[in-house]
Structure formats: structure tokens, C-alpha cells
Specification:
- This protein is α+β, with helices and mostly antiparallel strands and 457 residues long.
- The strands form five sheets. An eight-stranded antiparallel beta sheet has the order 18-15-17-16-20-21-19-22, sandwiched between helices.
- Strand 16 and strand 17 form a beta hairpin.
- Helix 7 runs antiparallel to helix 8.
- The longest helix is centred in the middle third of the chain and has 25 residues.
- The radius of gyration is 22 Å and the shape is globular.
Length: 457
């Protein structure tokens, strides 16, 4: 935290001072990446072990403080906000073990996706699938249901073989399909409601190559051919640029090699100069002069040219995101996605909404995680964004109305207005999750306003 934080007066029973716990002045504020969520915790702690964490939770509970763990702040909701004890993840890092026979790797919950990818690659291993942002911690990514796009390969949480969880009473649970299976089933996407994850065991595979083929297509061609494009490619996604008829598509498929890397200059021009530098400046102009947005969208849609390259998975799946924004994303039954997208296009045009960010569409197969957005059904995701500081309420409200009409499930880490009443109907296994919560945290030590809204009291 900030420089004004001071050491707490908390002492252990043997008189040892807890130097890793701090009590915060009012000026110490935690902010998320987008800057739309702030919190003023009474204390922060950066535990290095599950035992240290259990002790900190116990002291906070005894003092009547709520407890929340944060990651790197890439959620747009207040899922991690608290005025009680804020748990920082930095001390829970590193590779704990590698089991090559089982194909698993166990890592500390505070490890970032970036470092996980680098550590796996150094060992000739890889996750099967992932999202496009690497700055998240592994625990934050799985707890909010972070996903990539895939015909057969599911979200990061579906690649978990085991996890370690510290619960409200200080218990340290080892969870897997064989050990504490009900907790394991729920905690893979746990929203921070069941306890604090301290370690995760991921299933991995030998590192492989992906060929990425990126090219523009028309809105009509993509929406008409969506089912075939998903079926024909291991990973398919596209971006539609509002106010235009243009989409940018990306197909990622496994390759026998050899690698064919992007040239450094070409990669920098596309991923940094155009997608971040120029795009950021264009968004700032659109925020200041909304009437320029349609023209900017047309220029942006034409700026990205076709390219094909082959590289290791994380260098294909992920991309830098330096332009800050707010985001809403809904998971729909896959068969409803293109109808919903066409309705969204019509609303943007009819209401003359000014939208500078492209609309992103991805897919995931059904999984068996109670609160996964793909739980029990093949899924398509529609994500909308607005540049930070730009009024977003009218646009996001219109999007949400469309998505909920099609049975949409909001991404847990992105903006939405749904509550437990809606979500209990949207998730067939919702009651299964809340029953585990009632057992592990009956006094809601890990509760906050966001969880009250989405899970109920």
C-alpha cells in the first residue's frame, strides 16, 4: 500500500509483533486497474504461507472485520473491495511443484498469468487455453471465471486439478475431485466467497505451436458463417467495429511447425503503435468530441491488416492492453449469440450511441463448474467496452437488456446489474454453490456488498 501505511499494533500471543500487517490511514486507497472501484481497508496483509493467512483471517474475524483477497485489480466489479482486511497476493508466489508424470504444476495463488506462462514455457509446458490478459493473478483469474475462446478447450478454471483454500475458521483445505470434492467443484469459480485460495494445481501439456490467422471480414459474412467458423477452428474469435460493416477475425489452430514469428517491427506496429498508441489517442478524441466516433471507428476498422504467424501458445493467445476501459460481458447460449449481436447493432444505430471500442465475440464449450458462465451449456461471449471516462451507462444498459432477454449470464468480474434473484435462475447449480458457502462461511467473513447482491445474504 501507500507510504502512509503504518504498522499495526496487533501482537501474537507470544508478544511477537506482526510486521506484515498494516493499519491504513484514510489516504491509503486500493484502486482497480480501470479506476472505477476504490476501497479503504482498515488493514492490509501480505501473507507468505497459508498458516500466516489463517492467522490474519482469525484476528480480523475476532475484531469484526470482513476479509477480502485482491489480485492485480483487473476486475471491473467490486468483488474484492472491503473496508476490513485486504489480503495482498504478492507473498503467495512461485512454483511449488511440478509433476511431469501427472502433467500438473502447482503454483502460489499470487503468481501472475504472465509469470506462470513464462515458468511453464521454461519447462517445456503450457496451459491448453487462456484469456488474452496476462496481468491477472492466477487466483483472481479463476475466481472470476476468466476464459479465452475455444471450440473444445474451456476456461482456465476448467484446467484446475486441485487447490488449497483457507476458510473462515482458519482451516486449510486441500481440494480436488477426490479430496473435499464439493468444495473443489464450487471453489474453481468461487468469487472469493468460500475462502482465500493460496495455491492452485493446473493440468498442463507439452508446449505446442499455434498458427494465428488474422483477417478482416464483413459483419454479414461472419454472422452468417459463425457456426462453421467455430466448428472449423480450435479457437475462433472476432471483433465487430460499431458504425461499420467490418470485423477483424482471428483463427488459432495447432501447428506442426516450424515457428514463423512476427517480425519485431511488424509486431510493434500492430500491437503497440496501432492497437494501443494510436487507438488510445483516437478514443481520447472520441471522448472529447463524440461526433468523431463513427469516423474514428471506420478508420480503426481499416487500419488492421491481415497477418499470419506461428508461435508458442501464450504469445498467440495474449496481447497487451494499455488503453484503459470499462467492460461488460455476457455469456449466452451459443445458438442465441448472432441474433443478440444483430439486435445490438440495431440498437446502436437506432439510438445513435457513440461506441469507439469494437465488440468482442468468443466461445467456450460447456463445463461442470457450478458458477462458470459456461456451466452446462456451449457458450458464446459478447463483450462490450467503453473508453475510461466516457459515459457508458446508456450503452451498457441497452446491452444488458438484450443479453438478459436471451438468458445471458454476466461475467463475474465485469460490470453488470444482475442480482441473486436473476442469477439463481440463470445457473441450475446456483443453490449447490450457496450451500457450500453456507457451510464454509456462515458468518460471511468473506462477504461484501457485491457478494450480497449476486449471491444473497
Amino acid at each position: 500500500m501507500g507510504a502512509t501505511a503504518r504498522t499495526s499494533s496487533a501482537w501474537l500471543s507470544n508478544g511477537t509483533r506482526r510486521d506484515d500487517e498494516v493499519r491504513n490511514d484514510d489516504v491509503d486507497v486500493w484502486r482497480n486497474w480501470a479506476g472505477n472501484v476504490t476501497a479503504r481497508p482498515a488493514r492490509t496483509v501480505t501473507p507468505r504461507t497459508a498458516g500466516e493467512l489463517a492467522g490474519a483471517i482469525g484476528r480480523a474475524a475476532a475484531d469484526g472485520l470482513k476479509v477480502k483477497a485482491v489480485g492485480s485489480g483487473h476486475s471491473f466489479t467490486a468483488a474484492a473491495a472491503t473496508d476490513g482486511l485486504l489480503i495482498r497476493p504478492e507473498g503467495l508466489d512461485g512454483i511449488r511443484s511440478v509433476d511431469r508424470d501427472a502433467g500438473t504444476v502447482t503454483v502460489g495463488a499470487g503468481m501472475t498469468i504472465r509469470r506462470l506462462n513464462q515458468e511453464l514455457s521454461a519447462r517445456g509446458l503450457s496451459l491448453t487455453n487462456m484469456g488474452d490478459i496476462m496481468e491477472q493473478t492466477v487466483s483472481g483469474a479463476v475466481s472470476t471465471g476468466t476464459h479465452g475462446t475455444g471450440r473444445d478447450s474451456a476456461a482456465i478454471a476448467a484446467q484446475i486439478a486441485g487447490l488449497e483454500l483457507v476458510t473462515a475458521d482458519g482451516s486449510v483445505l486441500t481440494c480436488s475431485a477426490r479430496e473435499n470434492p464439493e468444495v473443489f467443484a464450487a471453489a474453481r469459480v468461487g468469487l472469493g466467497a468460500l475462502g482465500v485460495i493460496t495455491a492452485i494445481t493446473f493440468r498442463t501439456e507439452p508446449e505446442f505451436l499455434l498458427t494465428a490467422r488474422e483477417e478482416p471480414m464483413s459483419f454479414g459474412a461472419v454472422t452468417a458463417g459463425f457456426d462453421a467458423l467455430v466448428a472449423e477452428n480450435e479457437h475462433f474469435e472476432f471483433y465487430w467495429f460499431p458504425h461499420t460493416d467490418r470485423c477483424s477475425t482471428k483463427r488459432n489452430n495447432r501447428s506442426a511447425g516450424p515457428a514463423a514469428l512476427l517480425g519485431r517491427a511488424a509486431a510493434w506496429t500492430q500491437d503497440e503503435l496501432l492497437s494501443n498508441g494510436v487507438f488510445g489517442a483516437a478514443c481520447a478524441l472520441g471522448r472529447a468530441v463524440p461526433g468523431t466516433v463513427p469516423g474514428i471507428a471506420r478508420l480503426s476498422a481499416r487500419a488492421l491488416s491481415p497477418r499470419t504467424y506461428t508461435d508458442i501458445p501464450y504469445k498467440v493467445f495474449t496481447s497487451p492492453r494499455r488503453v484503459r476501459f470499462l467492460e461488460m460481458e455476457y455469456a449466452l447460449p451459443r445458438e442465441a449469440a448472432m441474433t443478440a449481436l444483430r439486435e445490438l447493432r440495431a440498437v446502436i444505430e437506432r439510438r445513435r450511441l457513440r461506441v469507439s471500442f469494437p465488440v468482442e465475440v468468443r466461445t467456450a464449450p460447456a463445463d461442470d463448474i457450478p458458477l462458470s458462465t459456461a456451466s452446462g451449456r456451449d457458450t458464446a461471449y459478447i463483450a462490450v467496452h467503453m473508453y475510461r471516462g466516457t459515459p457508458h451507462q446508456a450503452y451498457f444498459s441497452a446491452v444488458e437488456q438484450i443479453m438478459t432477454a436471451h438468458g445471458g449470464r454476466p461475467h463475474w468480474g465485469k460490470l453488470h446489474g444482475r442480482d441473486a434473484g436473476y442469477l439463481a435462475d440463470a445457473y441450475p447449480r446456483f443453490a449447490e454453490f450457496t450451500a457450500v458457502r453456507d457451510r464454509l462461511d456462515p458468518h460471511r467473513v468473506f462477504g461484501n456488498a457485491y457478494l450480497r447482491r449476486v449471491l444473497g445474504e
